[in-house]
């Protein structure tokens, strides 16, 4: 790697870790940076998943206070994340990602629109539920979280926005939805990482540079998420989703 590549990966890694903790979409920074260093797409994607893995763990730890009161409520979500993450990782290794990449801008557009409309949808669907109650795990919500987990294991760009959209529509307050997003993202990245490492599809030199920067960014972003006003965080999520959507439409 050249010095330019090292600086690019350091900046992209910190930004990716922070954005994943705040609003999702960190892959928007790190995956293009890995491609810019000359890595093939599948190798860049696998390396990116491994690099963002500690950042997702750090972000989950930073918001642990939001998760302690949920107890066994998270267990079905964690199980779906494990199964979906493994399935998505195996799909990536079994074939190329060209067809799926063409779908990414449409998926991001739908997720951004859903998240922007989630307050209205939440009031419509959950008008009798108070903000402190935990919505039940229905078949529809289980399927939605499983599909997001498969997507996260396969590519991951915008996974956080999809998760926030799903949790917000279910009726979770934004801070709790963000904490759940961080926890499930860490689970999905963990099982995908094991799959990619066993398959030998990780480029370790680029990973070493990206890893530390992403971990620092993830902890910083996770701590900042607890202090940002809800309106700011929601606006940031929508802005990130819109920017990612435009980017992938242009580059598709």
Largest sheet: none
Low-confidence stretches: none
Radius of gyration: 17 Å
What is the count of helical runs? Answer: 11
Total DSSP E strands: 0
Q: Give the helix level as a range of percent.
A: over 70%
Secondary structure class reads mainly alpha
Strand coverage percent: under 5%
Question: Mean of the pLDDT scores?
Answer: 82
The rounded distance between the terminal residues' Cα atoms is: 27 Å
Q: Tell me the overall shape.
A: globular
Order of helices and strands: HHHHHHHHHHH
Index terms:
252 residues, mainly alpha, 80% helix
How would you sum up this structure, described in words?
The chain has 252 residues and is mostly helical. Helix content is 80%, strand content 0%. It is built from eleven helices and no strands. The chain has helices at 3-22, 27-36, 41-62, 64-67, 75-94, 98-125, 139-154, 159-170, 174-199, 204-225, 230-251. Helix 5 crosses helix 9 (174-199). 51% of the residues are buried. The mean pLDDT is 82.
Topology (SSEs and partners):
Elements: H1 3-22, H2 27-36, H3 41-62, H4 64-67, H5 75-94, H6 98-125, H7 139-154, H8 159-170, H9 174-199, H10 204-225, H11 230-251
Helix pairs in contact: 1-2, 1-3, 1-10, 2-3, 3-9, 3-10, 5-7, 5-9, 6-8, 6-11, 7-8, 7-9, 8-9
Provide a concise account of the structure shown.
By secondary structure, the protein is mainly α. Helices cover 80% and strands 0% of the residues. The longest helix is centred in the middle third of the chain and has 28 residues, at 98-125.
């Amino acid at each position: 790697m050249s010095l330019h590549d090292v600086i690019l990966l350091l900046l992209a890694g910190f930004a990716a870790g922070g954005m994943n903790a705040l609003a999702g979409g960190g892959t928007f920074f790190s995956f293009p940076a890995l491609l810019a260093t000359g890595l093939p797409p599948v190798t860049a994607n696998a390396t990116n998943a491994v690099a963002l893995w500690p950042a997702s763990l750090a972000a989950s730890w930073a918001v642990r206070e939001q998760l302690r009161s949920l107890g066994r409520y998270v267990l079905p979500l964690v199980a779906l994340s494990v199964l979906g993450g493994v399935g998505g990782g195996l799909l990536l290794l079994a074939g190329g990602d060209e067809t799926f990449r063409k779908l990414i801008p449409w998926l991001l557009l739908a997720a951004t629109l859903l998240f922007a409309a989630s307050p209205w949808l939440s009031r419509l669907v959950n008008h009798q539920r108070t903000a402190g109650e935990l919505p039940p795990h229905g078949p529809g919500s289980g399927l939605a979280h499983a599909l997001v987990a498969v997507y996260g294991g396969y590519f991951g760009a915008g996974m956080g926005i999809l998760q926030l959209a799903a949790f917000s529509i279910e009726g979770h307050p934004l801070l709790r939805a963000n904490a759940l997003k961080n926890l499930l993202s860490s689970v999905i990245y963990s099982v995908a990482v094991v799959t990619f490492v066993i398959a030998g599809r990780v480029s370790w030199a680029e990973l070493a540079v990206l890893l530390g920067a992403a971990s620092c960014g993830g902890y910083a972003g996770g701590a900042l998420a607890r202090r940002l006003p809800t309106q700011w965080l929601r606006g940031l999520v929508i802005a990130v989703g819109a920017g990612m959507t435009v980017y992938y439409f242009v580059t598709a």
